[in-house]
Amino acid sequence: MTSSPDDHRAPTGAAASGRPLKILIGCDTFAPDINGAARFAERLAAGLVERGHDVHIVAPNIRYRRAQPQTEIIEGQPMTTHRLPAVRWLPHDWLRFIWPWRSKHYARKVLDLVQPDVVHIQSHIVIGRGLTRIAQQRGIPVIATNHVMAENILDHTSMPMFVNKMVLKLAWADAKRTFGMARAVTTPTRNAASFLERTIDITGVVPISCGIDRRNYLPVIAPRDKNRILFVGRLTGEKKVDVVLHALAKLDPALDVHFDIAGGGDQRKALEALSHELGLEDRVTFHGRVTDEQLRDLYSRSSVFAIASIAELQSIVTMEAMASALPVVGANAVALPHLVHDGENGYLFEPGNVDDLVDKLTRVFTAPAAEYARMQQASLDGVAVHDINRTLDTFEALYRDEPLPA
């Protein structure tokens, strides 16, 4: 059973000494993958290294062979990676996984080698499942973070829906067993924590923001010289980028709006086809995967960030947009209302409602300069509570089994 944030015991053993910890982070997705869970793990690991901890990463390899432990530079920080033999999930454009029946075997090998003070899994699916079971047998504490939504699982299968539902039920039952072995379970937001508690009937899930280093962004509070919508993220079904394209087609032509889409995914060709069908080719740019510098430039020159997704447990890209002083128009679903405060730093719209999205985007584009600047400042103020240092402080306390910071 998981513990609540108020009932942590006094720290004991090595973790209580205050010395740097040896932390093993288990990921089913990690660099070079580009998605919210991978980006969070990278930033968490880099922040922990910067604080003096010895961080090891277990993640799928890009090919079916086991790589020797090696030092990789992630987010500017050196850490040791243990890449496991992985195969690509064919219905998905980049997702790789290790064979589930090998997960405990590899967990034993890595734990023998690393002998960590604590294991922090980023998923209960495969690697995290194996690590948790072997770590529990050896008395190594486990912290589990959940980044999974049902839509993320169902969107990439090729099985009939009734089969999907049965698989999903079994997967959540297994998730309950895995999380039940953890000393603490976390998710990015309170809504996500409540979702997990309802779904698998556990208590005490701790909401901890993924965090963001605001120093990495270039906010400019000023009107833009052109109306530009930006979306950043994986081009998959649950992101609902098609809703934004349909809204773009219905916006007043006099607004002369351009839509920048940064990211790759299995839906890119379908979205390009839809853009052509709607006659938007000259108003939509598919940038694909971009560098950090290119991404900062896109944020800085955009007028508004639009996200129609219905499956965000937090949305790091929305926080990045806010740190870049962008108003946000987002779907009123899952975690987005935690970031988008309607009428303050942007607007919420009814999920899937194109006309409502058109209305909210028009409000941003037609706002007087002072009102637009107010929304920009509200985004900057709103993202301040998601500072990465607070996130790191909280996870360090969980690793050491200490009371969480207020």
UniProtKB/TrEMBL annotation:
Domain Glycosyl transferase family, chain residue ranges per copy: 223-377
Pfam families on file: Glyco_transf_4, Glycos_transf_1
Any one of the GO BP annotations: carbohydrate derivative biosynthetic process
Location of the Glycosyltransferase subfamily 4-like N-terminal domain: 34-213
GO molecular function: glycosyltransferase activity
Keywords (A to Z) from UniProt: Glycosyltransferase, Transferase
InterPro entries the record matches: Glyco_trans_1 (IPR001296), Glyco_trans_4-like_N (IPR028098), Glycosyltransferase_grp1 (IPR050194)
Protein name: D-inositol 3-phosphate glycosyltransferase
Organism name: Microbacterium esteraromaticum
